[in-house]
Amino acid sequence: MNFRRPRRAIPELDLTPLIDVIFQLLIFFLITTTFVSSPGMSIQRPKAQNSGSLQDKRLTIEIPKEAGDTVVFEGKRLGVNELRAALMEAFKKNPETQVAIDADAQVEHRRVVEIMDVATGVGFQRIGIVTSPNPQK
Length: 137
Fold this sequence. Notes:
Blueprint: H1 16-32, E1 47-48, E2 58-63, E3 71-73, E4 76-78, H2 80-93, E5 98-103, H3 109-122, E6 127-129, E7 132-133
Parallel strand pairs: 1-7, 2-5, 5-6
Antiparallel strand pairs: 2-3, 3-4
């Protein structure tokens, strides 16, 4: 009499097909994914030899030359009226914040003065213009 139980086969999971499927899915998603990059703006700042430094905590208004009548404030393209409303909100939070205008060198002086006027009209007193350092000749 044989009282021993017959040995059962230990079930094994073959990982090779699973890894193949995962790699195929990875390749599929890499090929079909579209990468959206935010449109870059190149700003060629005017050069200045005797410029001071700006505060780390500041509001920056960017005026690229191809922007037309809009500016970029906190990553959003805004018109003048929208900029005024956004600056009013920022002024309510902290009226001592410095405003930096980062304008392209080719932008008309009229646009820079218009944006400065909006900032001072809201109440900001500390306004600066971002420049690139000019090595002395």
